[in-house]
Design goal:
single chain, 212 residues, ten-stranded antiparallel β-sheet
């Protein structure tokens, strides 16, 4: 009888475990993240697509004191994407102040940005891996791995890899809560595999400013 009961319990639990997506499993490994991560390389021209409830203009606040206005817009094909350069500029200015001069999208690649800073520095950021999941109608997860090259004058560039996993929940039509897990890895020159060197976790809140 005990064996039958154990079999019934396993039968109930296994479908739940099997339904967990790669990003949910990735969260279970926090903070002991390692590369390689379960993130496919994005195809040329592919951007991160958000649920339709992201569309509009929002006030973002975070548990580390950042406050910025961010925008998500609908493309001609109906997909909702972030205004990457504008959002990065708003958040970057909140963190770096006047040290950040400009952020530009690569017109031929939505997965690359150039940020120009004071002292003739340029931060080149390229998305090298991405995955997103929508477990239900009000929850969205997205994980991106970026390669960052900081060029400064004639010195060799400083290279690092940053993984950012975000989980958002629609609380109300005009309010979204979020959590963000971020890990920093060394340069690919040190090997494609490796453990996170540093990590942090943030709470986010988005309150709608205006609708489309």
């Amino acid at each position: 009888m005990a064996a039958s009961l154990l079999g019934l319990i396993l039968a109930l639990l296994l479908p739940i475990s099997a339904a967990a997506g790669p990003l949910s499993l990735r969260l279970e490994q926090w903070p002991a993240w390692q590369l390689p991560a379960p993130l496919p390389r994005p195809s040329p021209g592919d951007d991160l697509v958000y649920p339709s409830w992201f569309e509009g203009h929002w006030q973002l606040s975070s548990s580390d004191g950042i406050s910025a206005e961010v925008h998500f817009e609908r493309r001609a094909d109906g997909a909702v994407v972030g205004a990457r350069a504008a959002n990065a500029m708003a958040i970057g200015r909140a963190v770096l102040g006047d040290e950040l001069l400009e952020v530009q999208d690569d017109p031929g690649n939505p997965n690359r940005q150039l940020a120009r800073l004071t002292s003739d520095r340029v931060l080149d950021t390229r998305i090298s891996g991405r995955r997103s999941e929508t477990p239900n109608a009000s929850t969205f997860l997205a994980d991106e791995l970026s390669l960052q090259l900081l060029r400064q004058g004639g010195a060799p560039p400083r290279i690092s890899r940053i993984e950012t996993l975000s989980r958002y929940e629609l609380l109300a039509p005009d309010q979204i809560s979020g959590e963000q897990w971020q890990a920093s890895y060394g340069s690919p020159e040190d090997g494609l595999a490796g453990a996170a060197r540093s990590s942090q976790r943030l709470s986010l809140m988005l309150k709608r400013i205006s609708r489309p």
